[in-house]
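Appendix B, example 12.
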Amino acid sequence: MYKKMRGWRHDYRNHIQTMKAYAAAQDWVSICEYLEKLDTDLSAVDTVIKTGNKMTDAIMNSKISLAHAKKIRVKAEADIPVALTISEIDLCVIIGNLFDNAIEASLALPEEQRMIRVYMDMKNTQLYMSFTNFTAGKKQKKENGRFRTTKGNGHGFGLVRIDGIVERCGGYINRNSEDGAFTTEILLPQ
């Protein structure tokens, strides 16, 4: 599944350019036919998790597949309503960055210790997300109220992007570092 998703990601821009060309020519029939072919191609990709939200399913299944390819176990439980007030792009940025960070941190561990836990659900009128991954390091300390990136200069933009989205949406974010584990919890009003 990971190889298929990687191939899809590689071809994504080409697909967008093709559909833009059809749209510019107002060739709606060709756009529909092209989308139908893409849908058929994508349906061949295994679905590990079904949340109730198609965009969330797509990013979650892609990242779970990537984690599995890197010998990382993933325990995921997610129940997301179809309609959310947060934009799909913002939700994709949050989920994608949290998964990418968890996968990268997991790679420092022996295979048998690699695990990511994901939980997403509605808590009253708020979308709750929790990502936990095991780490090889000791408890991290915050500097100026934030965890410093362990990747060096030129990195850490994912956390900044997540923080900006959560703030713009009027949400809440909490990160917790303990010896051997790192957790991010997010609440987003809906």
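The chain has five helices and seven strands. The CA atoms of residues 47 and 98 lie 20 Å apart.
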